[in-house]
Each structure stands twice: as structure tokens, then as C-alpha cells.
């Protein structure tokens, strides 16, 4: 067989990637040595909270060639997910509505992107019999953001997410580990500058320093990854966010350039699009599983779903209907959820007695919403 023209193959890979729906494809080597010290410090500080899997696998997470032997290159891809009519500021304004992180409004991205990465691998294999490759979509011990940064997909912002000049941060990442010596792409210069909007706006001050997020304080961690009770100090700050948090993205100036996705699978499901909290609270477990089938929300389970909504109802304006719903749910749920219901009832009672002053978080939230409305893409 004639020798492989890797430069030409790389160009084909990027064309195939675009045909499969990826907005960008980049290639990098496996050397993550410059990222290892920061990652180790993050672990040493305990910023991974109860996510013990982050500290497993030894050096495998920073050495892709150990994760999949024979790997010498990583193909990194991004796929935009910002839906049209996302109702972000609108939902955050209404305390009786539940805010769900925009990435979770449609179908679970893991299967969608993995399937397309597999197809990309098949196309490469048809042109190169010696290919040995394996796709990953947030499913293995990989530092996908450093890999994406090295592959030229963007730069790591101060909120620790990848930013792109043309796309902001509203996109998913995926990787293919391969054994081919493809030419690599050049990284993009960090363009956060002196901006600290994401640090200032975080409701729980989880971004403890530029490029360093303490998961113990992060609303996304508290509402998705945490299995037990949400620490009481953070409950008022969560507001009406019942699954994840987008505040650091919403406030980022680069996201005004974000493109809306054409992927129908990422468009909002009607039952999750600015939903009424009480309507969601009434979902029995069987109904919850049915309504969240194929959704990333399903992974938290019904108990944590009720936990999160209980907190949001406690943060909502006083309502006799809310109090009744909380009291009704109390007698039929778990001890963990009951703890949050008790707290929520206390918040509702205090509001009824008119003894709760205006919290600083409300002022911060109002500021956030005003800034969001100015920063969002026109159709979002």
C-alpha cells in the first residue's frame, strides 16, 4: 500500500467531522504535563468534593496513552447545544419556575456524540487499516478541557470551561484516542484578559480563584453530583435552580457570540422548558422516569429531584399552595428529602410572617438577570 498522507487525512477528518454535525475538530498530542500541577493542586485542596473518581486511576487522567495504550494523538471535537428561545433570564426571574441547565433540556448528549464519534472512527478506518481508536464522551478518566485547549478548540476560561471566540462556551466536547501520527493543531491564546465577571456573579462563590472551581460550593455539583443533603448555607443561594447552574456562562461576554444549535435533539422538551415547580413536584417516581427518559436529568433519580425542588420551593415567594404541597410530600418521601422540606417550610413560614429581610442574593440575582439580558444572543 502507498504511504499514508497524514496531512491529507487530517483535512478529510475535519470535513467528515463537519458532515457529522461537529462544529469544530482539532488534533493534539498526549502531553498534558503542563496541566498536571494545577490538577494535582485542585485535588489536594479537596475541590473535587465527593467525586472520588477524579482522584482514581493514578496518572491515567493526565496520560491518555495509559488510558488507551498505543495512543499518540487525540481528536477533540465540539458540538454546540444552545437552543433557540432558551428562556434563561425569563426563567431565573420567576421564582415559581424551575431553572434547568441549558445542556440538559434535550436528549442526553453522551450517546449522541459517542455515536457520531464512532462513525468518524469508521470513516478514518476505511482510509487507514492500521487505525486503532477509541471514542470518549465524558466517560473515561480524561482531562478533556486541557485536550480541547491544546487542540485549538478554545481556551480554558476563568470559570474552568472552554471558551471559543465564535461560540462562547455553549458546546459539548468529545474525543477519539488514536494511534496515528496526525499533524497537530496550535492552541489559541487565552483571551479572558482582566475580566472577572464569572467570579463575581457566582451565587455561592464557587470560583475560588481564576481557573479554579471548588465543587463543594458549586450549584451544579450540589444539585447533580451530591448524593446527600445540600448544606444549609447554600440552600438560599440556589434560588430556583433545580438541575445545574449556568450563571458563569450567562454572564461571560464571549457568549454573546454563541451560535444557536440546529440539533433537534438538543432543543428543549416542553415539560422541562421553564417548568412550574409545583407541577414538577407532583411527579411520582414512575412518571419522573418516564418524563426524563433519554434525558441527563434521569441520572440524579427521583429522590434528589425532590430534594432540589424542595429547596427551590423554599426559596419561592410565600404561597399556601406551596406549603400544602410540601406538607403533603413530607409524609410520603425519604428522610433526606424530609430534611429539605422542613427547611423549605421554615422559609415559607418566615415569609408569611414577614420577618425575612431582602437577601443580598436577591440583589445579586437581579443584577445577573439584567446583565444576562444584555449579553445573550438575540434569539436565546
From TrEMBL:
Tree of life domain: Bacteria
Known catalytic reactions: epoxyqueuosine(34) in tRNA + AH2 = queuosine(34) in tRNA + A + H2O
SUPFAM superfamilies given in the database record: alpha-helical ferredoxin (SSF46548)
Catalytic center residues: 138 (proton donor)
Pathway assigned in UniProt: tRNA modification; tRNA-queuosine biosynthesis
Domain spans labelled 4Fe-4S ferredoxin-type: 180-212
Binding-site residues for cob(II)alamin, renumbered to this chain: 61, 138, 162, 173, 220, 245-246
Required co-factors: cob(II)alamin; [4Fe-4S] cluster
Cofactor binding annotation: Binds 2 [4Fe-4S] clusters per monomer.
GO biological process entries: tRNA queuosine(34) biosynthetic process
Family the UniProt entry places it in: Belongs to the QueG family.
Protein name, UniProt field: Epoxyqueuosine reductase
Source organism: Moritella yayanosii
Amino acid at each position: 500500500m502507498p504511504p499514508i498522507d497524514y496531512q491529507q487525512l487530517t483535512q478529510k477528518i475535519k470535513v467528515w467531522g463537519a458532515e457529522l454535525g461537529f462544529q469544530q475538530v482539532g488534533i493534539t498530542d498526549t502531553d498534558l504535563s503542563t496541566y498536571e500541577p494545577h490538577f494535582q493542586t485542585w485535588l489536594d485542596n479537596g475541590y473535587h468534593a465527593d467525586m472520588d473518581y477524579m482522584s482514581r486511576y493514578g496518572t491515567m487522567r493526565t496520560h491518555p496513552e495509559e488510558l488507551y495504550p498505543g495512543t499518540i494523538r487525540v481528536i477533540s471535537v465540539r458540538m454546540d447545544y444552545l437552543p433557540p428561545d432558551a428562556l434563561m433570564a425569563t426563567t431565573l426571574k420567576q421564582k415559581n419556575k424551575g431553572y434547568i441547565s441549558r445542556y440538559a433540556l434535550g436528549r442526553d448528549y453522551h450517546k449522541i456524540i459517542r455515536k457520531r464519534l464512532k462513525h468518524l472512527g469508521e470513516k478514518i478506518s476505511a482510509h487507514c487499516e492500521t487505525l486503532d481508536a477509541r471514542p470518549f464522551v465524558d466517560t473515561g478518566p480524561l482531562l478533556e478541557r486541557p485536550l480541547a485547549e491544546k487542540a485549538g478548540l478554545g481556551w480554558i476560561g476563568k470559570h474552568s470551561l472552554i471558551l471559543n471566540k465564535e461560540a462562547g462556551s455553549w458546546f459539548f466536547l468529545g474525543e477519539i484516542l488514536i494511534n496515528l501520527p496526525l499533524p497537530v493543531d496550535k492552541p489559541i491564546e487565552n483571551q479572558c484578559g482582566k475580566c472577572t465577571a464569572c467570579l463575581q456573579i457566582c451565587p455561592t462563590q464557587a470560583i475560588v480563584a481564576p481557573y479554579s472551581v471548588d465543587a463543594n460550593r458549586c450549584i451544579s455539583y450540589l444539585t447533580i453530583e451530591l448524593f446527600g443533603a445540600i448544606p444549609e448555607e447554600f440552600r438560599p443561594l440556589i434560588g430556583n435552580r433545580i438541575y445545574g447552574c449556568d450563571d458563569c456562562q450567562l454572564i461571560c461576554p464571549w457568549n454573546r457570540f454563541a451560535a444557536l444549535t440546529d440539533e433537534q435533539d438538543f432543543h428543549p422538551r416542553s415539560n422541562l422548558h421553564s417548568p412550574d415547580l409545583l407541577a414538577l413536584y407532583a411527579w411520582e417516581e414512575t412518571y419522573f422516569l418516564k418524563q426524563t427518559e433519554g434525558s441527563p436529568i434521569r441520572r440524579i433519580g427521583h429522590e434528589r429531584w425532590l430534594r432540589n425542588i424542595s429547596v427551590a420551593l423554599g426559596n419561592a415567594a410565600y404561597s399556601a399552595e406551596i406549603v400544602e404541597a410540601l406538607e403533603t410530600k413530607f409524609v410520603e418521601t425519604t428522610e433526606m428529602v424530609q430534611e429539605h422540606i422542613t427547611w423549605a417550610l421554615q422559609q415559607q413560614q418566615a415569609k408569611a410572617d414577614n420577618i425575612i429581610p431582602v437577601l443580598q442574593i436577591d440583589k445579586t440575582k437581579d443584577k445577573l438577570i439584567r446583565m444576562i439580558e444584555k449579553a445573550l444572543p438575540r434569539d436565546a
